[in-house]
Design a protein that fits this description.
Chain lengths: ~450, ~450
């Protein structure tokens, strides 16, 4: 053990510093079976301990990578052998659930599902919901500004976090634990720590905004004959369902066929011959009236010629089956190598963009699959793409997906973040001045560059 | 004219630099009849001109204060005789309204009402709405993260701005004109310019998020017998009206009496004898069904014992009358001197906080009025307070309102910002580490301190 690790051990006590096989026996990510490489995993129990650790690491120029649930998909928490991993796993307390104020105060290592359940226990809802719910942490959600299926209604993590406590690289604790929806007293410094992937500070605590639990949840799957119909239908549903529209998920034909054909377990609720399908959900306040309302919305869509066919879930079991179909993304792993993308772009550019990506995949690889689906209400498309073999294939696929975004102002990351995985492509979505400003922030808050070094962009231009 | 002004004149051309009585004949604010004091008012026509001006001013150490519609209430855009006022009034173009993508791209000097109207023209809505709509600008809305009546449904300006272009103190143009709801490609640098009161950059353009225009608007006024009933009723309405609840405005008895008694023009729709009234609005998608829905919500409130009496607007005229009553805030100017406050705090602390403010006013002044109302769904209380005379009175009133916020984690500014007016009280709502981090940002982005100097906090700790 180095002197630094011994000093850190004095702060965190027994069990607080893991080394050797206690480190390497842990998987380094949800789809990364390889073990963690790091000098040590440090497991503080309090903000004060995080502060002490960072102050020492900063003085020693020791790199530190914060670890939440390691469910990220962009190599945003990957460590090298010289790094310290700072795991928040022992800081997972739910400190307060306040049903009257509709807030929850937590330590950042708490698992998302625990937060969802604690909200549910008092008749409320924490609306963030993503596939990693069982192991991802609130700290990781904040660091990546996590999105998910309900962004169209409730926004991203940035919109659900009222207050944040973070420790800066030098150990300074910035406790900005605001509990109000409105607070314009000075710059809103908590925004710095949301979506900056652990590069500007380590989030230790947060105040989350809870919502009233919907009294009804109505779901339908519709088929459309063209992408123009999808675009019009989104506007119609948004207007007709008022503020209750909570999901507008589009499945391109290839993805719909994939998740409704064995070995997938769901049967196709509608013919597999339409080019597009939309899974539409409304969360309302009127269990008696809301089913009629979504039926009316469907018939308005029919009458406007925007819906070719539709099925409205008439039971909770049927509703869950529709979602199980949409969420059966694992089916893409029938193909290997498989690359998952989360890009965002303007809805008016989507049809031609997807065609261009497919044209490039065809041109480069001849043989390829590119399953396409996404949260179209938010401008977010996912691809599950497989073509070719080996590292060149990966690079070719990424270029086919990312390069056409540049000219249309699209983003290489709608919600997963940049990490190491997309660092090379960041400049397609952000201009030099934006990246220079990110660097200015990084240098101002972490002048020694100890926090999650090398992620998102390089410190030197 | 100084050399610097001559050089700026070369950039902005004829009519671009105002001096002398062209400056002093302009009012320095909406409730500030005194003329503007400044070396000059500079009126660029483009981002490039703003960039050129700031580069020169930065090199010369010349202070610059950006001017929008000057409707702010916290002395956030006040100038001194040595300052340059940088008015965005000639940068008021609406560059694009995109009904399909539901975005509007504007120059920052555009007036809010023009944006609202342009959205309306294509069947959409820009949800920000505040009293200054006829003269406030989008740039000012962004600089102050403006709120208003519909925050409970649509959020504050921060939630309505997809992209921002700003010019840094040294003239660097940071164009972060994102057009998507989701974009996690690197740090979200636009957040820096929202709510930082023109201290970190001059906002020159923005991409605004438009919403579907509600098809129905249902409004009711209810009377409650206790603040506990108000708290319960908010939760009930939020759950029952699903995502359609768009306003939950509470009027304390003294404010209700004021705006329903001559010289106010509205008659009391409900008896003046209840301690609290709530004006509740839902914006929905179903003109046929939504009136029934708010009636059902009201009856659920009655049945739960939370509503003592209620009136539901049955016509657009009646709806507008209810709002005219709530919005007749000018009535507070029957008293002088009159101080307007916008604090925020947790709903569970409101009743005791208002009592404590009144206790302090009584103790300090004996004779006082403290009209109380606000956007309670967002934690925001407004006071219209009059007590005593002269500068000591002002200080005494401010202390009575602000000081009790410190121990309960309230904010001295829910939505108006800090400016010069609340600078002295910022430390009641933000701790030393938060203010130190604000200073770090200010120094990193504006090292010479030329942008809106002296506002929000002092550069030296």
């Amino acid at each position: 053990m180095t002197d630094l690790l011994r000093a850190i051990h004095d702060i965190v006590g027994k069990g607080g510093v893991l080394t050797g096989t206690d480190v390497s026996s842990r998987a380094s990510g949800i789809w990364r079976p390889q073990g963690i490489e790091a000098q040590a995993i440090v497991r503080p129990r309090s903000t004060e301990e995080v502060s002490g650790i960072l102050a020492m690491c900063n003085a020693a120029g020791q790199s530190v990578v914060a670890h939440g649930g390691l469910t990220g998909l962009v190599e945003g928490a990957v460590t090298e052998s010289g790094d310290l991993a700072l795991s928040l796993e022992r800081m997972n307390a739910i400190e307060e659930v306040n049903a009257v104020e509709r807030t929850m105060t937590v330590q950042s290592g708490v698992v998302l599902e625990a937060v969802q359940n604690a909200a549910e226990d008092v008749g409320l809802m924490y609306p963030l919901d993503i596939g990693g719910r069982g192991s991802c942490t609130v700290g990781g959600n904040i660091a990546t500004n996590a999105g998910g299926n309900r962004v169209i209604r409730y926004g991203m993590t940035r919109d659900m976090v009222l207050g944040v406590e973070a420790v800066l690289a030098d150990g300074t604790v910035v406790s900005s634990m605001n509990r109000m929806i409105k607070n314009n007293a000075g710059y809103d410094v908590k925004q710095l720590f949301i979506g900056s992937e652990g590069c500007l500070g380590v989030v230790t605590r947060a105040v989350l905004r809870l919502r009233e639990k919907p009294r009804s949840q109505e779901t339908m799957l519709v088929a459309c004959r063209s992408f123009d119909e999808i675009v019009e239908l989104l506007k119609l549903m948004d207007a007709k369902l008022g503020g209750t529209l909570s999901a507008f998920e589009v499945l391109w034909n290839n993805f719909y066929r994939l998740v409704t054909t064995p070995p997938a377990t769901q049967k196709p609720p509608l013919s597999q011959d339409y080019p597009y399908y939309a899974l539409i959900e409304a969360m309302g306040g009127d269990p008696e009236g809301d089913h009629d309302r979504i039926e009316q919305a469907a018939s308005e869509g029919y009458d406007a010629g925007l819906i070719a066919d539709a099925v409205i879930a008439s039971s909770e079991a049927q509703r869950l089956e529709l979602w199980a179909m949409r969420d059966d993304v694992e089916q893409v792993h029938q193909y290997s190598p498989m690359f998952i993308f989360d890009v965002s772009l303007r809805i008016s550019k989507m049809e031609s963009y997807v065609a261009e990506v497919n044209r490039r995949l065809e041109e480069t690889f001849g043989d390829y699959v590119n399953f396409t689906f996404g949260h179209i209400g938010d401008g977010n498309i996912h691809f599950g793409t497989s073509a070719g073999e080996g590292p060149e294939a990966q690079d070719g696929v990424k270029r086919a997906v990312y390069e056409p975004l540049e000219s249309i102002g699209g983003s290489v990351s709608a919600e997963h973040g940049v990490g190491l995985d997309k660092k090379k492509y960041l400049k397609l979505s952000r201009n030099d001045a934006e990246i220079a400003l990110m660097r200015t922030l990084k240098k101002a808050l972490d002048p020694n560059g100890i926090l999650n070094p090398g992620k998102v962009f390089d410190l030197a231009a």
